[in-house]
Amino acid sequence: VVKSEIDTAEEVVLAARPSGAPKERDFEFRKVAMPEPGHGQVLVRVLYLSLDPYMRGRMSEAKSYAPPVKIGSAMGGGAVGEVVRSNHKRFSPGDIVIGDMGWRSHAAVPAAALRRVDESQGPISYAVSVLGMPGMTAYFGLLEVGQPKAGDTVLVSAASGAVGSLVGQIAKIGGSRVVGTVGTPEKAAYCRDELGFDDVIDYRDCGDLDAALSKACPGGIDVYFENVGGPTGDAAMRHLALRARVVVCGFIAEYNLTESYVGPSHLRHILVNRASVHGILVTDWLDRWPGAIARMAAWLKSGHISFKEDTINGLEAAPAGLIGLLEGKNFGKVLVKVAER
Ligand SMILES: NC(=O)c1ccc[n+]([C@@H]2O[C@H](COP(=O)([O-])OP(=O)(O)OC[C@H]3O[C@@H](n4cnc5c(N)ncnc54)[C@H](OP(=O)(O)O)[C@@H]3O)[C@@H](O)[C@H]2O)c1
């Protein structure tokens, strides 16, 4: 057992429940005593923390698939870290692991809640990005629920982001025609030129979104991978093709709203096109993640998939990172580099 050299750790706690967009004052950065790993626990020094849109939901009390963060408690979050001390035979100091370490510099975590990172598959940060939760969301959401066939038109929103960029590239591997919606010209150029999307719509700049969708998806949309909701999601529903599949993954355009978003009813389009609409949760396929991660790693190695990370430095910057993510300021998967390896 190696004694940790420092006796204080850092964490970011939820200070207040935000109304609307979160503010910096809704978080508090503080120094705390170094956690002591108990029986069967492991002390992990966090290297990369993943920031994800679902964290906005955890800041609220509204019912969701996970309980809210308590006021005064550290924000939760997936992270990659290095084992510093271990009270479990499965892990030794120096091991690189992934788990829900939260917004912390160090965390004492039960060994059963940690997974060893296979460093041969890619940079260690990939364990919380393309080879982790967002990657698995794209993989299973698209292939299991969207079920695109060669020649299908697949539309994905938030197309340059962690999930969206992978949905588009996996659909391309399968021979679909891929169209994305994004919020800036730089994101549009990235999807078209670097990811090989067939067409991209900048929803902020295209004027009439319906006209843009008619042009980009002349035969209608066979698979819509919904990441944003709001007016973009509404427009997509008006362009569904017969027997379309709508994969409801998220609706980030609505997470900061103080009142429920009320758009037009989609039911008519679902009926007329005999479409199916299916909500997904990435952990529903947890038992199948290892195979999918191996397949994604192979696509990365063969160059069929590329991935962009948007890394910010220091745990103290995490609140600003999440606030920015919810406003579309990120370009790629948002990670906080908490410490050097
Ligand atoms: N169901 C699941 O299991 C699961 C798992 C992971 C993620 N998700 C969901 O998947 C979606 C994408 O997550 P991610 O981690 O990949 O994030 P991301 O796409 O990397 O980043 C979020 C992007 O959303 C777009 N956005 C933000 N505010 C918007 C608004 N008001 N209107 C339209 N677009 C907006 C922005 O891109 P633009 O600048 O292009 O608008 C922003 O860059 C989220 O809805 C998330 O909740 C669901």
Q: What would your notes on this structure say?
A:
By secondary structure, this protein is α/β, with parallel strands linked by helices. It is 25% helix and 26% strand. It contains nine helices and 15 strands. The strands form three sheets. Strands 3, 4, 5, 6, 7, 14 and 15 form a seven-stranded mixed beta sheet that branches. A six-stranded parallel beta sheet has the order 10-9-8-11-12-13, sandwiched between helices. Helix 2 packs across helix 3 and helix 2 packs across helix 8. The longest helix has 14 residues. The radius of gyration is 21 Å and the shape is globular. The mean pLDDT is 96. NADP nicotinamide-adenine-dinucleotide phosphate binds next to helix 2, helix 3 and helix 6. The site of NADP nicotinamide-adenine-dinucleotide phosphate has 32 residues, from helix 2, helix 3 and helix 6.
Mean pLDDT: 96
Tell me the helix content: 10-25%
Order of helices and strands: EEEHEEEEHEHEHEHEHEHEHEHE
Q: Per the principal axes of the C-alpha atoms, what is the gross shape?
A: globular
Span of the ends, CA to CA: 19 Å
Outline the low-pLDDT stretches: none
Bound molecules: NADP nicotinamide-adenine-dinucleotide phosphate
Question: SS-based structural class?
Answer: alpha/beta
How many β-strand runs? 15
Number of helix segments?
9
Radius of gyration: 21 Å
Strand content: 25-35%
Main β sheet profile: 7 strands, mixed
